[in-house]
Design goal:
Number of domains: 1
CATH topology: Porin
Shape: globular
Radius of gyration: 20 Å
Helix content: under 10%
Largest sheet: 17 strands, antiparallel
CATH architecture: Beta Barrel
CATH superfamily: monomeric porin ompg
């Protein structure tokens, strides 16, 4: 039954990725570009971009994205490109929870599709006890289906499935008996320009379907603004929330709000650093309603045209 559920969830990813193509096909074209692209005034819809052109150096990257934030941007690694993030993060409240590390591997298919696989090593300390082990993995497909380069505006969908890896402690526990399917829509645009770089805005909204024991379906949203702080350091500000749609077995509708501050900058053309510090508040967990969150990581870029 669990295998069937996972197969159905993965199949739904490919259905969702193909949906924007139908929308693009119904839009009356003004000009035809490469195969699979419908150009409209000011922008273009694209099912699969395969020009595989090297990206021009656009200066400091200021678009808010994950990692180090929770909000996801619409960017992809580019044609045959790799983006590998190694992140260490911690959450400090009544107890302590760490991802040390999280390995996030992304591969670019064409110009506008990204495949993602990530898996964390989790450590937890609370009430004098501790535990550790490989956490749930996540597989996702990002499809940037609309882009207006004149305004740095783009739209994408990013369906993802989170599941326990067979043979791990999580898979053998009650928490590993289901999957989490996340269905976000992503939006990015430039809102201003400065001498050091662009001021960028990112927004996400998602419906998340859970078959995990004790986890209800929930909606989530995040907003982020990024701008150049120094010539080689970007500052990003984010607000996010998750809100369950129904009450759990304890008759509590779970949810929280979070504020986050992120930093990022280049070390070389193919290596970047990033970090964040944030605070959760207004949590439904009244006994432990406020957590401090921190992260630090490196991003490696390779491949591409």
């Amino acid at each position: 039954m669990l295998a069937a559920t996972r197969i159905q969830s993965l199949a739904s990813l490919f259905v969702l990725v193909s949906a924007p193509a139908a929308f693009a096909a119904e839009h009356e074209p003004e000009a035809k570009g490469e195969a699979g692209i419908t150009e409209t005034k000011g922008g273009k819809f694209s099912l699969f971009g395969h020009e595989c052109k090297a990206e021009e150096d656009a200066g400091l990257e200021t678009t808010p994205g994950s990692p180090p934030l929770d909000v996801d941007d619409t960017g992809t690694p580019g044609c045959n490109g790799w983006e590998i993030n190694v992140v260490t993060s911690g959450e400090f409240g009544h107890g302590q929870d760490f991802e040390a590390p999280l390995l996030d591997i992304n591969y670019g298919v064409g110009d506008n599709i990204q495949l993602k696989f990530e898996v964390p090593y989790l450590m937890s300390k609370a009430d004098g006890t501790s535990s550790s082990g490989v956490g749930p993995a996540e597989f996702g497909i990002k499809h940037r289906f609309y882009e207006d380069e004149s305004h740095d505006l783009s739209l994408a969908i990013y369906p993802q499935v989170e599941f326990a890896i067979p043979g791990t402690a999580v898979a053998d526990s009650d928490e590993g008996s289901g999957v989490m399917t996340k269905l976000p829509v992503l939006f990015v645009t430039r809102i201003a320009e400065t001498g050091r770089g662009n001021v960028m805005f990112t927004a996400n909204a998602a419906y998340n379907i859970s078959t995990l024991n004790g986890t209800e379906n929930y909606v989530s949203a995040a907003l982020g603004v990024g701008f150049p702080l120094l010539s080689k350091v970007a500052l990003m500000i984010e607000g996010s929330t998750e809100q369950a749609l129904t009450r759990n077995m304890d008759n509590v509708r779970e949810g929280y709000f979070k504020a986050n501050l992120g930093f990022a900058g280049p070390i070389t053309d193919h290596l970047l650093w990033f970090g964040s510090v944030g605070q959760t508040f207004a949590s439904s967990d009244t006994a432990d309603s406020s957590h401090t969150c921190m992260s630090l990581g490196l991003r490696v870029l390779a491949g591409g045209p």
